[in-house]
Write a structure and sequence with these properties.
The protein is α+β, with helices and mostly antiparallel strands. It has a single domain, classed as Metallo-beta-lactamase, Chain A. The protein contains ten helices and 16 strands. The protein has a seven-stranded mixed β-sheet with strand order 1-2-3-4-5-8-9. It has a seven-stranded mixed β-sheet with strand order 10-11-12-13-14-15-16. The N terminus is likely disordered.
């Protein structure tokens, strides 16, 4: 094994904690049932996840190991509406090169998680990707032993923003490692993936009844949030606008964000609705707090309170 790779595969202590729950929670939202599934956990550099925020601050919320890595979740949400079975996000998948899998230590658990939740791939009829970074759309397709890929959800219509595909195809130095074309190009070629546009979303944001999308640019130029509404209740899968409960402060943006200033403004816009309307916020990368409501503390700072284990579960 090359010496330069040896440190990359040191096990993160939290990855050995034995927390192997394949179903992270269930929430009743009006007439809808939300099931929080997982592709497991993975590791990323803590500094990259908190940008210019000093480690002395962010490490109080989420500890780093000796290599400055923090543990992140790969949360997907299944929404059963009574008419549709909708999957929001598909994790990292099984197409990562061996070196990247050793670095991230991801487990490729989404198929097992769906099975544990009693959900067959064939019954999912809608898949929504907030954006097309590798850790959000990896199980859109499955790598087979012969090196080919096939759709993971054969009866699903997939939805992503056309701008994400166009940006991924540019393979820019800044973020080309985040875009893996086998996660989406085969679905576009087959006609199974619908590419949304900004104008189209403004005209009609609804994907199916009760589920709609809205652009929250900043992390990427056309990142989507997914709104879920039923019986007067509202949840939002917020994508990497707010990746974990530790990022609810508008200024705690990511080093990965393409436009951090825009991201701060979009977070404020999001919170101005999510807080007073008591939305359930679904975080893509918080393994321990996959869903929360956000309120304001005595100092006027936003704080997340987990809904798992409460009456919402």
């Amino acid at each position: 094994m090359p010496p330069e790779l040896r440190q990359d595969i040191l096990l993160h202590p939290a990855s050995q904690a034995g927390d192997g729950d394949l179903v992270r929670g269930r929430i009743t939202l009006g007439d809808f049932e939300l099931t929080l599934c997982t592709d497991g956990t993975y590791l990323l550099d803590g500094g990259a996840m908190f940008g210019v925020v000093p480690k002395t601050l962010w490490s109080k919320r989420t500890p780093a190991d000796e290599l400055n890595r923090i543990l992140l979740g790969l949360n997907s949400t299944i929404v059963r509406t009574g008419k549709h079975t909708v999957l929001i996000e598909t994790g990292i998948g099984n197409k990562q090169p061996a070196k990247m899998r050793a670095i991230h230590q991801n487990q490729e658990l989404l198929p097992a998680s769906l099975s544990a939740a009693g959900i067959r791939p064939e019954e999912i009829d809608v898949v929504i990707n907030t954006h097309l970074h590798f850790d959000h759309c990896g199980w859109n397709t499955t790598l087979l032993e012969d090196g080919s890929v096939m759709q993971t959800f054969p009866n699903a219509r997939y939805f992503a923003h056309a701008g994400e595909v166009a940006h991924g195809h540019l393979q820019l130095d800044r973020d080309r490692v985040s875009y893996l074309s086998p996660n989406y190009d085969p679905l576009i070629a087959s006609g199974q993936m619908t590419l949304l546009t900004t104008d189209g979303i403004r005209e009609d944001p609804e994907i199916v009844s009760g589920i709609s999308v809205e652009e929250f640019p900043g992390h990427t130029a056309q990142m989507l949030g997914v709104h879920i509404e039923s019986g007067g209740e509202h949840a939002c899968y917020v994508g990497d606008l707010i990746p974990t409960a530790h990022h609810v402060d508008p200024t705690w943006v990511l080093g990965f964000d393409l436009d951090p200033v825009r991201c701060i403004a979009e977070r404020k816009r999001f919170l101005s609705r999510a807080i007073p309307e008591k939305w359930v916020v679904l975080f893509p990368h918080d393994h321990h707090t996959p869903a929360a409501r956000i309120s304001v503390d005595a100092k006027g700072k936003p704080v997340a309170t987990s809904v798992m284990g409460s009456g919402d579960q």
